[in-house]
């Protein structure tokens, strides 16, 4: 292509996905790699079991989510001792009312090695429940409808769909996103009428642009059904009166090049968050009868130092989520008086975001707060009195004292002079020295910000003398929209350089040394791991790459693979020579060379719909034939799961136990 020749000697490994002639050979190969990993890690088998038990022991087995009030009912999930899943329940009017178990997912999952139930959606009259189920881990869902009064399931089943759905206000019309069985792309929004066959469902919207994701929802006011179509750099919304579900969707504002916008409804107007002439986004409003861009009026302007991330609309209040200096802030505006204030959090590095707030007519804001040392905490905040009430803090069974741990916010200066925030946590008494093991984690793509949050599993690392560091590198959006723009397309290498520079900074500041430094990233963060293994293999004692995206050019040329067309604005389209050359220059698979690589553990899932299993498998095979060192190279494939790993609430801990054991073995840390 473009006069360039690339040879892929392991292309046959994709045959399980393509249902090709070598399908059986692929499964045999992956099983052989798994057997090799098990053999190499056999000395840690007991330690892995102990780690699993230790991490599982911190999780409260009999637990309940904080109830959320919606349309006359309190909804919550609860989990039972020894069970992998949960029960979805509600109580009418008061928490003292008798419990209704709407779905017993523990029972539903029996006999399935993977089970995901999502998109719980109760009809406006509270009588019907629509929900999606995936038993393969390909994110292809079947939607079922249950009568909550009689307990019966209707004959209506919808497949393949994205899992979520939205009711019209007539309680008999259901809108949903239909997906392509091959590419898994969201292609059509369909309308289903109760009691009819799903194959007769009406297509109300058909997305022609393969680079757009689509979905359907409702404004919080329950007045409008909304179809969203968005690519990386532009979006478009269509609206329909929810009382007239048979009506025609109207375009809110036709898509504009390089303009993203998002809408919600409040009173006599729509509120719009947009980057139109506003790099860090601004807030606009427009009358409900005149939605075109020419009618938009500015409410909050663009600011160079503040990213406007989104809004939460209430009848009398507006909650604006902003990001300043890499930290999230919640700004509360009383729309009747226009008075404003910020919620005070009082920690140097934290994560805070609006939680589930389905009630439009409420003065209470549910928000979630966490930091590297504070377990996830759910608060109810009275926007009128400014009083907060802690509803629940994640319980760490066996005890956890935050005073025993230290969190720091550091800034690493990169080779081009940019200051990258690094969040660090360790146990008091852990020395900062060249002998101290440190795990550096990052993601750095899609504008996804990696905010500092608590992890009870991480305690198993910290309590054994590890320092944990989170690098907020470019490609995320921690420091504003420009942070993302500077880590994508033809600036993608900034992401990799930032990570390496953060590592060099931590070594210089005597937190660790290359002999004890580990790196981890997953999915697009796995691309980061692949790139740094080629660029600076000397810097790491070990690298963990979870479900890594490593064969950038081949994948982005194959439009039959899910996600490919959606992501041309993120990586580039290799059909264009300039993009092809740039992507090839960093693609981990294309840049494997004859040299020494660090110890590596690479994981994947056979049914992964986001990063197909064959990318990591081919990468490992090529590494095996090229590397000149005697370091460990392990591939672990979950033969029953996909991109998110195991579906049960404990099974995923086995995957973490393997990763921790891998690092502990290299550090000589035993049980």
Q: What is the rounded distance between the termini?
A: 53 Å
User: Count the helices. How many?
Assistant: 13
| Nearest-integer average pLDDT | 94
Strand composition percent: 25-35%
Reported for the largest beta sheet, the result is: 8 strands, mixed
Structural class: alpha+beta
Q: Percent of residues in helical segments?
A: 10-25%
Radius of gyration: 25 Å
Low-confidence stretches: none
Strand order of the largest sheet: 29-30-32-31-33-34-35-36
Number of strands: 36
Shape: globular
Description:
The longest helix has 18 residues. Helix content is 19%, strand content 34%. Helix 3 crosses helix 13 and helix 7 packs across helix 8. The relative contact order is 0.10. The protein contains 13 helices and 36 strands. With 671 residues, it is an alpha+beta fold. InterPro entries: AB_hydrolase_fold, Pept_S9A_N, Peptidase_S9_cat, Peptidase_S9A, Serine_Peptidase_S9A.
Topology record:
Elements: H1 15-18, H2 23-40, H3 45-57, E1 63-64, E2 68-70, E3 73-79, E4 87-92, E5 100-104, H4 105-108, E6 116-122, E7 128-134, E8 141-147, E9 153-167, E10 173-179, E11 186-193, E12 202-206, E13 213-218, E14 224-230, E15 235-241, E16 250-253, E17 261-266, E18 269-274, E19 282-287, E20 297-300, E21 306-313, E22 317-324, E23 327-334, E24 340-342, E25 351-354, E26 364-370, E27 377-382, E28 388-393, E29 405-413, E30 419-427, E31 438-441, H5 459-462, E32 467-471, H6 481-485, H7 493-508, E33 517-522, H8 524-535, E34 542-546, H9 552-557, H10 568-571, H11 577-586, E35 599-605, H12 614-626, E36 633-638, H13 652-667
Parallel strand pairs: 31-32, 31-33, 33-34, 34-35, 35-36
Antiparallel strand pairs: 1-3, 2-3, 3-4, 4-5, 6-7, 7-8, 8-9, 9-10, 10-11, 11-12, 13-14, 14-15, 15-16, 17-18, 18-19, 19-20, 21-22, 22-23, 23-24, 25-26, 26-27, 27-28, 29-30, 30-32
Pfam families: Peptidase_S9, Peptidase_S9_N
Domain Peptidase S9A N-terminal: 1-393
Family: Belongs to the peptidase S9A family.
